UniProtKB/TrEMBL annotation:
Domain of life the protein comes from: Bacteria
Protein name in UniProt: DUF2065 domain-containing protein
Acetylation as UniProt keyword: no
Organism: Pseudomonas segetis
Segments passing through the bilayer: 6-23, 44-60
Pfam family, one: DUF2065
Keyword Membrane: yes
Keywords from the UniProt entry: Membrane, Transmembrane, Transmembrane helix
Length: 61
């Protein structure tokens, strides 16, 4: 199980690094927009992301 968790963390790091590497200016703008969101908006985005990720994992597995 620890090996799969390590692989998952590595994949997250790779995927998180793709956009800043390919489109640094656009990525910076997106981060600036995220910084202006309210706490409630950020929480809603986080919840949506978690639910979507969970649903995709369930569907793929």
């Amino acid at each position: 199980m620890w090996q799969e968790l390590g692989i998952a963390v590595c994949l997250v790091l790779v995927l998180e690094g793709v956009l800043p590497f390919l489109y640094p200016r656009r990525w910076r703008g997106a981060v600036e927009q995220l910084a202006q969101l309210s706490d409630r908006g950020l929480r809603l985005m986080g919840l949506t992301s978690m639910l979507l990720g969970t649903a995709l994992l369930y569907w793929l597995h």
